[in-house]
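Here is one chain, start to finish.
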Amino acid sequence: MSDPKSSKPKPARANRSAGPQAPMEALLADVAFDPLRRALWLDALDQRLRPSLPPALAPHARVANVDGGRLVYVVDAPVWRAKLRLHAQDILDAARSLGLDATELVVKTTTHPFQPPERTERKATPMSAAAKEALQAALASLVDPKNTGSKDS
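Its structure:
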């Protein structure tokens, strides 16, 4: 006997018959891309909450998750964890103003910095007098190919 569940027609997704979609929208419409959709939402939330952070703290803190009433941040050093916790009420108020039901701020610390260390450019050291004289002597010894012909021609 056949299973009654298998004989029922499966409902078609509404967005498949809607016509052509932009590539990113088409990818995000698939259930397999729920984690990507969530990551994009968390990034957008981080950008909206960033102005509520003190300017010195903002580059060191990121929204990591929203889990029920818990707003989870990750920071890149313990000192920023302590400073973020001092501003917990302001951050929760900002989250509530965006429509989140945030009642608790959780702060985690990562072992990796958010931004790669800045590369410092090396400054050229001035040339010594002896090096300058040697370079001038080398340049003077070079022969210009245009002037290598005989003067009689």
